[in-house]
Amino acid sequence: MVTLKLPSTYSTGLDNMCEMVTISMALAATSVAMSAGGMVAQQLQTASAAKKAQKGEDRNFINQSKAQNEKADQLDKEAIDKKSIRAKEAMIEQGRLNVIQGESGLGGLSFEKTMDESLFNEGTDISSIESNRLASQRQLSYETENLAIQSGNRRSKIKKPDWIGGTLGVLGDAASTASSF
């Protein structure tokens, strides 16, 4: 039986080669781990920015909604004031007609027609004021609905973290690194 002894330089070269492969694999694993860590950090940063943007949009929408509600209240109060003023004007006009009728002693159909016309005008004016108030409220409602749509559109454009895409990227890097061995 013959035993072959390898020269010591050959054995050392093989050991160095194994160490180099081990070091290369360790570096590749470190690279993949760093890539994964970077992806996680980036996704967390994106999530934080998205959360801040969402809160900002929520505050913006709430403030705009409050402004719309305030506008609606102002429209209601304005209509009430206008109706009160018109009712007061009608009362003064009808009182003046009663005084004229009393002083002149005139009455009958002419007086009743004038009084009816005054009452009709008052009712028409108040009805018109209410109709305008309702139309303004509808317009305000459409504006509020539009604000909600715009807010939803802005929310949908907020960049959110892509955990699946990031994970697939890291797995692709790992596969690429593994195939190089």
Describe the fold and architecture.
By secondary structure, the chain is mainly alpha-helical. It is 90% helix and 0% strand. The protein is built from three helices and no strands. The chain has helices at residues 8-104, 109-156, 163-179. Helix 1 packs antiparallel against helix 2. It is rod-shaped. The mean pLDDT is 81.
Listing every helix as H and every strand as E from the N terminus to the C terminus, the arrangement reads HHH
Q: Which overall shape is indicated by the principal axes computed on the Cα atoms?
A: rod-shaped
Determine the number of helices (DSSP H or I, runs of at least 4 residues).
Answer: 3
Radius of gyration: 42 Å
Distance linking N and C termini: 38 Å
Mean pLDDT: 81
Largest sheet: none
Give the strand content: under 5%
Return residue spans where pLDDT drops below 50 for at least 5 consecutive residues.
Answer: none
